[in-house]
Write a structure and sequence with these properties.
heterodimer; A: mainly alpha; two-stranded parallel ribbon; 6 helices; elongated; B: Alpha-Beta Plaits; three-stranded mixed β-sheet; 12 helices; 11 strands
Chain lengths: 187, 336
């Protein structure tokens, strides 16, 4: 009885080794084992990002803001025409962030990080990650954001600000672009 | 072939044997099968004008040279074999015929590819449930890319609107039409999941659908008889049937086509999502993934350990629809 049981067990184990019983994930793992998780803080990035600076309408900012920006001085001249009338900051409560949280008032051609370091408009993720570290981690691996046109290496990803308006980052409510087409009886 | 039809066919062959002489006599004296005989007729018709008159179907005898050319193309197309059995020459021939056919019939310039699977590639897809907002941009891109029937508004992708806190596919509403995202709802897209163990392939009586090396389940539209067994077998409602001749205005036809993908279909055949085989085999993203404005869709090579899709499978809590059926879809859902 016991011998029979072990014989059956042995046969079952041999059976499991065949391709037929392998799940899809087992097949994939066998063909190409997972790589070590990319270290998000190592500074080594295995993809490039879309440029952003060339798409900014008013860049270079120093064309107007020749010697930086003085908020208190500007606040004293409210009647002056405001160039950035369309910018409405709906990102975080006012006690959490102001324009200066991201923009470098000393040199408006750059953004600034939490530690005051200047960052190019082409690399906004360096600024965004100060708060959105989880999203940055996902984006670095590929679970957040968008691939650019191709699934093959060399990999190119969308920038944070390609999709998100940094002044109003949430996606807005709108109508769907197509009508549904679902037969009545089908789910 | 029934007795009456056979007798008619033989008399028809004899009737048209006269003017062309030797070639036709050879045809009759040899013992050949029906399919070969009909193929030879088509072959003869293409050779020269005189032979066209002698051997092409009766409705060819009058009409312009263009009409005759079209009839010859139709004749040869009718007797071609399953795509998987064709050699490179036969594939090139049928592509040439199809491209010429669209030019003659609709004045359309299309480019049909027969690109095969790339080596060491297995396609996979991931869908982020917390990112999709239900804008249906993917559906619009899919329709334009894949030349789907405009009259019946055929769509491969469905976006289900589901109340927060529910995970059952039964409670989804794919017919929503209001401003999105709706309060208290999330969105879940479905399409063909290109199962690794596809039930649709197993039931096809003619071998018109199969799984390619890169994991894409494809259909040979010229070999499908429209029995819709596959539609019944698919547990995900992923397959669509052309009840009528599909209509796509000339100016909206996507000319970059693939034989197994978005080439123009006809009445009475099945079709479905192919992960945009005409794009992905060139290294491009499927149209839905490229169109998604929220980044909910990720596409990639499951055999590339550095790909985005592999990162998601390794680092996110993923699931697939109806996993208990053991269909092994290559389409994963995950949340942030």
């Amino acid at each position: 009885m016991t011998i029979q049981f072990f014989a059956i067990l042995l046969l079952a184990c041999i059976g499991c080794g065949s391709e037929h019983h392998m799940s899809l994930m087992e097949k994939i793992e066998r063909a190409a084992p997972a790589a070590a998780a990319p270290a998000t803080d190592s500074g080594v990035r295995l993809f490039s990002v879309l440029s952003r600076q060339d798409k900014l309408a008013h860049f270079p900012c120093r064309g107007c803001h020749t010697d930086g920006f003085n908020l208190s001085a500007a606040a004293k001249r409210p009647q002056e025409r405001r160039s950035h009338w369309d910018v409405e900051l709906r990102h975080a409560p006012a006690d959490v962030m102001t324009c200066a949280t991201c923009h470098d008032y000393r040199d408006l051609n750059h953004l600034n990080k939490n530690n005051g370091e200047a960052v190019s408009f082409d690399e906004p993720s360096a600024v965004c990650r100060s708060c959105h570290f989880q999203q940055f981690k996902d984006w670095s691996g590929g679970a957040h954001g968008k691939q650019f046109k191709s699934w093959t290496p060399p990999r190119v990803r969308y920038n944070c600000t390609t999709c998100h308006n940094p002044h109003r980052p949430a996606f807005q409510k709108r109508w769907p672009v197509t009508y549904p087409s679902v037969p009545r009886r089908y789910p | 072939m029934s007795g009456g039809a056979k007798a008619w066919f033989q008399s028809w062959l004899r009737k048209w044997n006269g003017p062309a002489g030797g070639c036709g006599a050879g045809l009759l004296s040899k013992s050949i099968g029906r399919r070969d005989a009909l193929k030879m007729l088509g072959g003869g018709a293409a050779a020269s004008g005189a032979v066209v008159n002698a051997f092409a179907p009766v409705n060819l005898l009058s009409g312009s040279s263009e009409e005759r050319e079209k009839a010859v193309i139709d004749w040869k197309e009718f007797f071609k074999t399953n795509y998987r059995l064709m050699n490179d020459r036969e594939r090139a021939d049928t592509i040439e015929r199809l491209e010429r056919k669209y030019k003659l019939e609709r004045n359309l310039d299309v480019k049909i590819s027969t690109a095969g699977p790339l080596p060491n590639v297995l396609y996979g897809y991931a869908f982020n449930l917390s990112k999709c907002k239900g804008y249906r941009e993917c559906i619009r891109a899919c329709i334009q890319e894949n030349n789907q029937d405009r009259a019946s508004n055929m769509q491969y992708i469905r976006i289900f609107e589901k109340p927060m806190g529910s995970m059952s596919v039964e409670s989804g509403d794919a017919r929503y039409y209001h401003e999105v995202p709706a309060e208290g709802h999330f969105y879940m897209g479905t399409q063909c999941f290109q199962c690794d163990n596809p039930p649709c392939v197993r039931v096809c009586p003619t071998g018109a659908t199969w799984k390619e090396q890169d994991g894409i389940v494809v259909i040979d539209y010229d070999w499908c008889i429209g029995c819709r067994y596959c539609q019944a077998a698919c547990p995900y409602w992923a397959r669509r049937f052309n009840w009528k001749e599909p209509t796509v205005p000339n100016e909206e036809v996507n000319p970059n086509q693939h034989y197994l993908g978005n080439r123009l279909r006809k009445k009475g055949v099945m079709e479905k999502c192919t992960y945009c085989i005409q794009r992905t085999r060139q290294g491009r993203l499927p149209a839905c993934a490229e169109a998604c404005p929220t980044g909910a869709r990720t596409f990639g090579n499951l055999l590339d350990p550095g790909s985005e899709i592999r990162y998601i499978l390794a680092h996110k809590k993923v699931f697939r629809l109806k996993e208990d059926l053991n269909t092994e879809p290559k389409f994963w859902y995950y949340m942030d």
